[in-house]
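Researcher: Checking consistency across runs. Here is Mechanosensitive ion channel again:
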Amino acid sequence: MGRVKRIFLLTFFAVVACGLNAFAQQQEITDTSKPIVDTPKAVKKATHANKRSDTAVSGLLQKIEIVTAVINDANNLLERGFDTLDISDGLPDVEAIISTYSQSGNEKLESFRSLKASKSILLETTYKLKKWQASLAEMSHNLAEIHDRLHVLSRDSSWLVMPEDSVLRELYIYQLGSIVQKWKSCDSANKQCVLRIGILQNRVSSTYLNTDAALTKVNYQIEHFQKRLWRPEEPSIWKANEINTPRSFFEVITISLQGMQKVIGAYLSTNSSHTIGGFVCILLLFGWFVFNMKRIRNYNENSKAVLSNLVIIQLNPFLAAAVFVITFLPFTYLHPPPSFITLQWSLLAIVYTVLIWKTFLHWFRKYWITFVLLFLSVSFMNIIYFTTIAERWLQLLLVVAAIIMGIITFIKLENPGRELPRYARPVLIFFIAQMSCALVANLFGCYILSKFFASSAVYSILSAQALYACVQIVVEAIYLQFEAYNKVSFFVSYFNFHAIRQNLLKGLNTVAIIAWLIILFSNLNLYDTIAETVKDFLTEERTVGNTTFNFQSIVIFLLVIWVASFLSKLIVLLFDHNTAGGSIKRNKWGSALLLIRLGIFSLGILFAFAASGIPMDKLTIIIGALGVGIGFGLQNIVNNLVSGIIIAFEKPIHIGDSIEVGGRYGTIKEIGIRSSKMSTVEGSDVIIPNGDLLSQHIVNWTLSSQFRRVEILVGVSYSSNLRQVEDILKQIVFNQEGIEKNPSSLILAHEFADSAVNFRMLFWCDNNNFIVIKSQVLIQVHEAFKQHNIEIPFPQTDVHLRSDIPVLAPDKDATDNQSSKKEISTKPAKE
């Protein structure tokens, strides 16, 4: 009976839980939805019909092990892979927030600042809900895969094939029963997870729809405010009375502070990791500054002179790092509310003031403190949600004070000795203009517009100062890194900081100007409008003939090409060979850099086509057009390009080599893709096409060695003691600084000339200094010969006059003069 019972349980679980179609066909049952086992007799018959040879038992057991492992993996994933605790805990708070926005409908009590804060919160909520939806969708997909894998196992008919041996059959039945229990448990857990995640998906989806509706409502209100921005929303200030402002000033401040606290708290809780990341960046930047400064003090003998070039970082490395990170941190947040931005910039104003205080000119300090107080006051008024009479009068006084302060500061700048950075005057003029607009707008009832102008004015001053400081911090940080590793790092030693600084300032200033404009337009509430207008203009489809295009693809194409060109120039910039004194260091990397630049350009073109969405088959058309152009008029350009590649591989010249080509002598300054630059000794730069470099004979004085042989011919009179002359010349060459000892110098009697015995002085010296050394040797030879009374012969001309031409004269004596003749003879003479 025990054996029959185990067989019955096996067949019952297999049929009910798995629904085996194959076994049903063997029993000739047409309705597979009904139970196929009714009596023990049928069970015995089924078991007997599906017996297998005992040699296949090992395969069945191996299959059981595989299936058990699959079910165990599914159970582990169900237990640990579907944690929805964060979503379950955070969803009620989100639902409460959205419920508040959905129920609020009093648009008159909403200010523009409160609407911007609401939009920020709703956008953050939308972003969070999208993340939850994506996470739940992935969980649901994984659960569906688990369900499919489990039911694939249930439809396998090979489970009912029994071993013939009774002992093996009992063992197999026991293990199969265990698998059935695990399968049922796993399937039940899977269904529970599907139910739980399905409920969460419905709640998240419903909340997302409500959030989208609330966001649409807030966007409509903001657009309504923007349309009415240039029209008075309040009466003129001289007509205003308490009836127009039902709330008191202090009541409005209390409400605004409470709202600011809630908004900032909610935003910080949502972006806590982002804020912590910013603080970590400050610590890392501070540690980098301190480490490099300590390294310079330990390993550089002139550490004080090096560190004295640091204007900002040396004041306080931590505050310098904080200013840099806080300045650019607002650009990294997604949809920050106005109150959060105000808090960040207020913190930046305080930190920047503490950092730069010592560098301010004495006369400028009181004006800067006044400006900081003005900035904090305007920023505080910027977070007030509702308008009151007291607020409008207070803002009017602040704006008038700001205009007066701006005018006085601008007048002070005209005095000598009170210079500020070049951008100070235009920014100050812009500050005064915006404050004047704020004053006029407040007087005539456009109070929201007045707030925009006032906040934009103070932010333009602070952001200009902060961005200028950030540019200086970047340059000083690079200088710090360069000086810390210049003498110990082979890689850093190739960098030319002087060239990097001069060129990097241009790019950094451009980035600073763009950032300043973004801040300005954001404060004037024009950034979104401008961005949308530009986006619509770029993405609009245009048709020319049969070709459809948009300007976005063209801009992307040109941008990628510009980036490739910039990277190519950056390679040259990093490894520039011009020193601060104007000389050129010799470097054999010039050819490798040329190949790198060619590779960057080639990849840039391919990426430009791919990124802009231009079909790659168009590239073949362009190449074909270039082939036609090469055949007609681009032979020289292609010749120069190919010659540049040949120069890169053969390396006949390097940057810093002294060469003679085309009758000109100079130093190779740059090896370009099409042409190369040679700096002559006269100070001019000669641009030589690469094709001409290969087609002409090049004399490279420094290809294999930096030294060159100098020859000087010296003549002495025949009466001189030649051995003495030889000794004197040897002594001069031996004692002259800059002449190489190896190879050794030679003093040779060269020839017997017409008026002198000539000696050859042959010596080796550095190619860059051979002219100076040759001059010093000549001076010493002249002085030594003069001291030892050794004559240096030189050609001399004697002129003899003779008269033998007859002259007609009235007296007798004159007839004796018959002629006159001129005779000129030359001969050598002694000194």
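Researcher: Does this match what you'd expect to see?
Model: One thing to look at in this run: Residues 566 and 716 are 62 Å apart (CA to CA).
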